[in-house]
Specification:
Layout: E1 3-8, H1 15-26, E2 30-32, H2 34-46, H3 54-62, H4 71-74, H5 77-87, H6 90-104, E3 109-114, H7 117-121, E4 127-132, H8 135-148, H9 155-171, E5 184-187, H10 193-208
Parallel strand pairs: 1-3, 1-4, 2-3, 4-5
Helix pairs in contact: 1-10, 2-3, 2-5, 3-6, 5-9, 8-9
């Protein structure tokens, strides 16, 4: 049975972890679409090009391959901020739409997480979940994640980054971050990963029925 699960939400809400868990549970391929924007930004930085160079950013986006990402580098805090800049460009988002939709169109379905999956990429998804949490909770999670990788984790700076990205993602003209009209909102502020996964699985099962 084909099943497409669209998971959206702001930075460090837990959507990526939930998407990976759900993909493993249901035996479906998973795509973290945020990596596409991080890889686009990374390509610009590697070439010494400014992040606001739209033409170069579109060219970088169109040349991406889903199989050669250096996830450790792409998940660094500075790359997340850079990705938020290029993701605000309508032309970059347009350049990446077909790649994401092709992934979702696999016969068995797929699990995709990002910020516009339920609203733009997969508006007809079987299940749509909007994962959220308070900015303070998300900053704490990101700080712990970075510290776990041996990176510097300044909570105050991370909280400022989270709020800045929220404002940029929600306020952009192209595919702003917002729940799809038919999405189920899952607030993970007070939930640990097992509780959040149980809740997300319940949402999926209800939608399948």
């Amino acid at each position: 049975m084909s099943i497409v699960i669209a998971i959206d939400g702001p930075a460090a809400s837990g959507k990526g972890t939930l998407a990976r868990r759900l993909a493993a549970h249901y035996g479906r391929p998973h795509l973290d679409t945020g990596l596409l924007y991080r890889a686009t930004a990374c390509a610009l930085l590697d070439e010494g090009l400014p992040l606001d160079d739209v033409e170069a950013a579109v060219a970088a986006a169109r040349s991406l391959s889903l199989v050669d990402f250096d996830e450790k580098r792409l998940r660094a805090r500075d790359m997340g901020e850079a990705a938020s800049v290029v993701a605000a460009m309508p032309a970059v988002r347009a350049a990446l739409i077909d790649m994401q939709r092709s992934f979702a169109a696999r016969p068995e379905g797929a699990v995709l997480d990002g910020r516009d999956i339920g609203t733009v990429i997969c508006p007809d998804a079987t299940v749509k979940i909007f994962v959220t949490a308070s900015p303070e909770t998300r900053a704490t999670r990101r700080a712990l994640e970075l510290a776990g990788r041996g990176e510097e984790a300044d909570y105050a700076a991370i909280l400022e980054d989270v709020k800045k990205r929220d404002a940029r993602d929600s306020g952009r003209s192209a595919a702003p971050l917002k729940p799809a009209a038919d999405a189920v909102t899952l607030d993970t502020t007070e939930l640990d990963i097992e509780e959040a996964f149980t809740a997300a699985r319940g949402i999926v099962e209800k939608a399948r029925r």
